[in-house]
């Protein structure tokens, strides 16, 4: 089959690889209809991946059609339109049985497209382990592109919003306005935020956030502007949607007394200089973590069905899978929000 | 001073009565600028009041200017624009000290305008006991009319919304579209409701709710319509904003499995026929109670300041206090939403 | 196989019936090691069952050993010691996939032993539908008898405790001291209750509750005693563990301002006379519903493993299954707490 | 009057100073009956105080009798036995009016005994600003020594327990077994913890914790021991009760996936090396902050009255105030848990 594969830093190639096949009774084989590039795929692209493997298929956001199921699969059958959770659980431990993939006790598999251990879904087809838990039939009223956003980006954004202890009427900041940050702006308003400061270096992204009702702010001016605008109270909740040390540090400067900073971006710093004195004096709650995708579907599916969240509008580019190398380059140059690719 | 006074069923008269004066070190005397008629004032108007007294001043929703303070008052001074909480606490028990007037251990005073014990505020002036707790300087950015809505109607509406366990994306019903019900529609959306069914017999009121984004439904069709529209799931939250047996009963038919019915209307039925079998089978939470006004100011003031809630738009009539008798009659004929009166 | 079967009011007989067999790929066949009689089985015994069927196997509390599995079963295999959830979900809808059997969208099967549709487990063997969801391997450190209490009685008790909004230090009442009520006493203390009033007509049951640290109270004296003991505040939480109109009514008299009444007992009254006036004046939360057994295992298993809850101590009788008719009679005469039966 | 005063590092002297007097209508003058030394007083003792002042009275934990009240004081009168909150609010801002001194908008006064701005209470008398908010009549059933523990140490401990997201049955660690840590051990059990690992270098302190039901662990062995004992899951909640970098670091190693670390100790590190990579991978919640004493009285008073928490048992030394210099030295040598002093 055709797929995008990793061969080294900035070397992702479209080419032929072994067909995806079932390996277990509980597996599901999905013919990919659309797949997308996640911000964290750029870590791999930059050569900061999680494995020394070469030649594996990349990508972990995809929707498609079931073409084959293991005999132990209960909830899916051939022909079903499905969305595939980026987070992969074993499907058989107590955590997975409660729909909390992030509490999976055997989460060796982890995620697609990080190594040869679990091939990625930027491909014509992908094997989904424990299909009953790790994929879901796309519900009525959800388009393919909405479903694609539900495989990773929207749940990650929403988890961070839910982790931010947003109170009705609150002043909230979102730091970083990629697709996840922009969806967080939407999410903060859905949770009752009274004012959302949308912070990014790129004016065009701030303009999109302003179209959602937020107040766009340049990072360099954020502390002073928000201090003034909140009369010194600062924000009661901050959603950090980048994962860089600088943006986490900024988030910790924007939060007011007894407030919460909720981080969603991948950060691999082992000794982040944390302002403990300030945290103690102001009474901080700090949260970070990865997203248990299926857990959030329950809440998000109705919100997308009813038009409260419109994740599809952050798709800026649609390309054939064969142009995947270019797609990565576009995203890397920050010329795109969300790039969707389609196998021909 | 001039005031509206109760002399019997449908007999509320404008006339002269004794001036309001301080009685305690902690009292505050307020010259009333605007006052409003609450739905529960109609109970008194209909002769179903809480006292046999005659001639007392009625009304419990008012804003105005402080003209005198007892020497033990800490937070207010002459000239302050204030809003007066309809709920009155003693100001000195642990409940009041925590801002939870509804947990006041000595709540004999209860509310203005129910009897001669605490004169009402549909008058040129009103004595506010324990002014530090029972009144608040009107915050910057809040108009007099907004503040008037904050004295009772909006907090009552919001309490019921907060009691309704609204989940993001949820289908919610509001039963009864007086000003409190209409504000509840706004409040449900602010809490993340995905769809709000707005139920009232009066088409004009449903039309206002539709203008807020709700789906207007006639009470007679509500069960069938909502069953169809939710594919049998019914509503996960219902706000009951009338207090009649029929509307509580309807609310209990609209709630789905593991849902919540939150009542705010005054109901005095001692043996309400409660569908216990259905409640057990579906897993019901049922809540009712009165509103601790100052407790909710913390959350509501920023929401009104930021324009998330616009309570002033439900004021349909503005009249001089001298036309108070007519104002009650208009409201009684359901020709008005909120009636505001102004002493000349 | 041998089983207890229902033939009419007070006519439960031990005898031979068709062997339990697998009917679906996801079924599990369990050889029953121990089974127990639930208070709700007495409804059937009294002829107030949920079906006109005759001759079906009764009972819904059992533990045993897996002897056969359908080919789509993922988490269990022959030889596994298992506990069987009294609540039965389809195992394939979103609710079941989240471990919330009570939100199962297809819960036709409902429960074992209510009719011929799903044979009961007071038998030598029982077919468990969707075994992955509806049964669980008994965790290390849990005895068979503890596991048996985890199939229904303990989760039901715990759900009601969790629904009761118990605050640390609170005064709480438990109405009804069968095994579920006694476990609720334990549960209330585990949740931080400061005082637990344990209410039952039977002095021996009150004595057991007193051994757990509660204050035993006769129902006839409960209102006066608790008013005195709480200085008029009454209880902030009440757990109702019977399901009769009289005990629900009593519970509603024991709750104080802004308190919660949590009911767990089966009640089939269609027009229960609910004290709405009092509920409104005091600010009541009322909850009732059935128990989603597997959902609570996550929390309860560690509590039993660590000895915080000791459900096995409420087993008062152990009999061979062949004496099942007598076992029902003993329980009906209130001579027993929990009766456990063992197929020979 | 006689008092303990600060004159430099390790130089606290008992001597005569100006009498405490009322300065404001809302002040209350309290004759001190008992006062105690807090762990944070040792910061001052070590010369790491918050001011360059010399000669000011130290201490912020005291109970006594009201001897004079400003004319605007509502809730206290001469002769009342009172406990004095260590946290001081202005008493007139919205935060203070809601009983949330930690949200006081004007918290210049901060705390007693940190500088000459607000004289400490290790003295024969102390001026309490805004007495209605910052002191409380000692409730019936609370001894003087219990009340003394309620002025700071117990609420601080309890706040940290409540911030730790303790789930029923959970495995929890408490790091540091001074009086606050030992009370945290009690508090964790009151909140339903299934196992509490009590960690301190001092074997005697571990032995006290074991007497409360905890498992004593030496800090050097804590990571390995808890990993083994929890089968790799580690703790879902950790309460850090020291404030040192090393103990915060240890706490962050003891927490398991999706767990919470709650810190209560004063920490003044500006660039604490925070393990962000680990926090992200495991899904951490981290909380720290100071305690709003009166806010917690509502919950703690019934717990102490009912004997759920017994804070008085951590008082190890009782000395006359005149021996205050020696009292500090004893505490500094870690020979004491809580030292109580009494003016003669």
From TrEMBL, chains A, B, C, D:
One of its GO terms (molecular function) is alcohol dehydrogenase (NAD+) activity. Residues 179-305 form the Alcohol dehydrogenase-like C-terminal domain. It is an enzyme of class 1 (oxidoreductase). Residues 25-133 form the Alcohol dehydrogenase-like N-terminal domain. It holds the Pfam family ADH_zinc_N. Its EC number is 1.1.1.1, 1.1.1.4, 1.2.1.3. Keywords: Metal-binding, Oxidoreductase, Zinc. Belongs to the zinc-containing alcohol dehydrogenase family. PANTHER family: DEHYDROGENASE, ZINC-CONTAINING, PUTATIVE (AFU_ORTHOLOGUE AFUA_2G02810)-RELATED, ZINC-TYPE ALCOHOL DEHYDROGENASE-LIKE. This is Alcohol dehydrogenase. The gene is adh_2.
């Amino acid at each position: 089959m055709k797929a995008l594969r990793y061969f080294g830093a900035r070397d992702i190639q479209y080419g032929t690889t072994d067909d995806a096949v079932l390996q277990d009774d509980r597996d599901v084989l999905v013919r990919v209809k659309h797949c997308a590039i996640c911000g964290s795929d750029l870590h791999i692209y930059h050569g900061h991946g999680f494995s020394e493997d070469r030649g594996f298929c990349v990508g972990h956001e995809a929707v498609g059609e079931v073409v084959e199921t293991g005999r132990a699969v209960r909830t899916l059958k051939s022909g079903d339109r499905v969305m595939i959770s980026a987070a992969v659980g074993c499907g058989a431990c107590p955590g997975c049985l409660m729909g909390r993939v992030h509490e999976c006790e055997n989460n060796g598999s982890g995620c697609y497209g990080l190594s040869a251990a679990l091939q990625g879904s930027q491909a014509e087809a992908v094997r989904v382990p424990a299909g009953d838990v790790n994929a879901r039939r796309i519900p009525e009223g959800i388009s393919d592109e909405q479903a694609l956003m539900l495989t990773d980006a929207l749940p990650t954004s929403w988890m961070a919003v839910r982790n931010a202890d947003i109170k009705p009427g609150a002043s909230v900041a979102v730091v970083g306005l990629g697709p996840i940050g922009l969806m967080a702006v939407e999410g903060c308003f859905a949770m009752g935020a009274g004012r959302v400061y949308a912070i990014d270096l790129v004016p065009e992204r701030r303009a999109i956030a302003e179209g959602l009702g937020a107040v766009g702010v340049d990072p360099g001016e954020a502390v002073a502007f928000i201090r003034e605008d909140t009369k010194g109270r600062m924000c009661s909740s901050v959603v950090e949607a980048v994962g860089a040390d600088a943006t986490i540090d900024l988030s910790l400067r924007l939060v007011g007394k007894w407030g919460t900073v909720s981080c969603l971006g991948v950060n691999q710093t082992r000794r982040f200089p944390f302002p403990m004195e300030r945290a103690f004096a102001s009474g901080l709650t700090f949260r970070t973590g990865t997203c248990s995708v299926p857990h959030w579907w329950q809440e998000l599916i109705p919100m997308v069905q009813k038009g409260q969240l419109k994740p599809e509008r952050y798709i800026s580019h649609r390309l054939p899978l064969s142009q995947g190398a270019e797609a990565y380059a576009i995203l890397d140059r920050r010329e795109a929000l969300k790039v969707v690719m389609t196998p021909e």
